[in-house]
Design brief:
By secondary structure, the protein is mainly β. The protein is built from four helices and 37 strands. The strands form nine sheets. Strands 2, 3, 4, 5, 6, 34, 35 and 37 form an eight-stranded antiparallel beta sheet that branches. A hairpin with a 4-residue loop joins strand 28 and strand 29. The protein is globular. It starts with 5 loop residues before the first helix and ends with a strand.
Length: about 500
């Protein structure tokens, strides 16, 4: 009797069908509305916790004369000090510099920014004291459906192709037919607007593969992955995003559920770990040099599935973190790490460990001067999902911090935002045993803290996320929703 790996167990436990999105455009937004508190400088964070958020939302609706009521929600309230660079419009005199700032995150179903801007001040009563607030700033976070893919997809890829200013969505798993997909959807970025096109195909159907842009040729290397009979491919293909022409490239061994990393200065793409046709976690790596694959000269300490690869440009190495052994009888997770040295084409062992064992996590590089890696979430075993993070310092090659996020999450995405200081954590599961999905949050590497934001109209996991450099927005596609349906919808988040 054939045993299923942990990755396959996730598919059969959670997935029941395909949900076709019928919405052409739906807007959902959250606003960070910041006010200067004009009286009561002794208002504390504890006082803010005691605020009746429902009553406050109704107060705002009444003041801005909304025709509909009970549609606003106060998601978060924070207190801070005036920063003259960011909140210059708040400062009208010297006294203002000492006054606290109160930020309300308001979630709503349609645009109300202009109405809030007209509300220059308002008052609320807290513990029998009437507090007066003056508008300081409004920062909008918007999310909208931007198009539907030709198929519902999970285990697919999403790749930004800079020279063609497009995002390529390839392959995936189709629950309706229980088969791998060979279709490709493409979002063209024209005048900062996303336009969906389709009609191109890979030569081979695949899911749980990787797709990366080759630095020199700008072709997309689509490598490995599973076929419709749950067997890993032993080939890759080079895909031309403009012509749709693809060519097959043999790999050294079959692999799926592996991870990849691009090494731009050496024009290489490395594939590491994953599983073979016996569902064994691989210790090996393959390196594509623009023409062909070559094996990494040695092997990793352990086989890994559900791990992460993060290229570290300041030391020209790839950081390999966490994962599991993929043993269907005895799944073991790891907190170990090691490196791939691009210059020597060899793995390098390490005695360092994360604070927690992790698989199904994310690891995001934040460029210099921060020069650190943010490692978030994942599962510590087959049952428990983590709400913790680790910070790896590339300069000292050590873990320098750890802490707790707002939510547990695994099978989520993590996207570095435009300021190179914050990371969007989107979606993911909060548990392996129920259907609750995680809210989005933005983690700031400077303050080492995160805030909850609305970045998805439909919460999801096993989706993809791509950063759009020209706009700073994030495109998220496919995945699985809370009702265990696979999605064909794509949403765009404007931080």
């Amino acid at each position: 009797m054939r045993l299923f790996s942990f990755r396959e167990k996730q598919r059969f436990i959670y997935i029941f069908g395909c949900l076709i999105n019928i919405f052409s455009l739906t807007i959902g937004s959250s606003l960070d509305v910041t006010y200067l508190l004009l009286n009561g400088d002794n208002l504390s964070s504890n006082d803010l916790v005691s605020i009746d958020r429902e009553a406050l939302a109704r107060n705002i609706e009444e003041n801005i004369h909304l025709s509909e009521r009970n549609i606003l929600k106060i998601q978060r309230i924070t207190i801070d000090k005036v920063n003259s660079n960011r909140f210059i419009r708040c400062i009208q005199n010297a006294t203002d510099r000492t006054r606290p700032l109160i930020t309300f995150q308001i979630v709503h179903g349609y645009q109300i920014q202009q109405r809030l801007e007209s509300l220059s001040s308002f008052s609320i009563q807290i513990k029998n004291i009437l507090y007066i607030f003056r508008l300081c700033s409004i920062n909008i976070h918007s999310v909208s459906f931007v198009g539907n893919m030709t198929s519902c997809r999970m285990y697919h890829t999403s790749t930004f192709v800079s020279n063609y200013t497009s995002i390529l969505i390839t392959g995936g798993f189709n629950p309706s037919t229980t088969t791998a997909l060979n279709t490709i959807d493409k979002f063209l970025i024209i005048n900062d607007t996303l336009t969906m096109t389709s009609g191109q195909n890979m030569s081979t159907a695949r899911y749980d593969h990787t797709a990366d842009v080759v630095p020199s040729s700008k072709l997309v290397l689509i490598a490995g992955g599973m076929n419709s009979t749950y067997m890993p491919h032993v080939n890759a293909e080079l895909f031309n995003s403009t012509t749709g022409v693809t060519s097959i490239i043999p790999m050294s061994i079959a692999r799926a559920t592996h991870k990849s990393a691009v090494i731009p200065n050496l024009n290489k793409i490395v594939l590491i770990g994953g599983q073979n046709s016996s569902y064994t976690a691989l210790t090996s790596g393959d390196v594509f040099d623009g023409m062909q694959f070559k094996s990494v000269k040695n092997t990793m300490m352990i086989g890994r599935v559900g791990h992460t690869l993060t290229f570290l440009p300041t030391i020209n190495k790839v950081l390999i973190i966490g994962g599991s052994n993929n043993n269907p009888d005895d799944i073991q997770y790891t907190n170990t790490l090691e490196f791939y040295d691009a210059a020597t084409n060899m793995f390098q062992t390490s005695t360092l460990h994360m604070w927690s064992k992790r698989a199904g996590h994310t690891a995001t590089y934040i460029p210099a001067p921060i020069n650190k890696v943010l490692i978030v979430g994942g599962g510590s075993d087959e049952i428990n999902v983590l709400d913790t993070f680790d910070i790896f310092d590339v300069t000292t090659l050590s873990f320098v911090a750890n802490g707790t996020n707002k939510s547990k999450r695994t099978f989520h995405t993590a996207t570095l935002l435009r300021n190179n200081k914050a990371v969007l954590l989107a979606g993911g599961r909060t548990s392996m045993t129920d259907d609750e999905l995680a809210p989005c949050e933005i983690f700031n590497l400077v303050t080492m803290s995160s805030v909850i934001v609305k970045c998805l109209n439909v919460p999801r996991f096993f989706h993809t996320a791509s950063f759009i450099p020209s706009t700073g927005n994030v495109l998220m596609c496919g995945g699985v929703d809370t009702s265990k349906q696979i999605l064909n919808s794509c949403e765009q988040f404007q931080p």
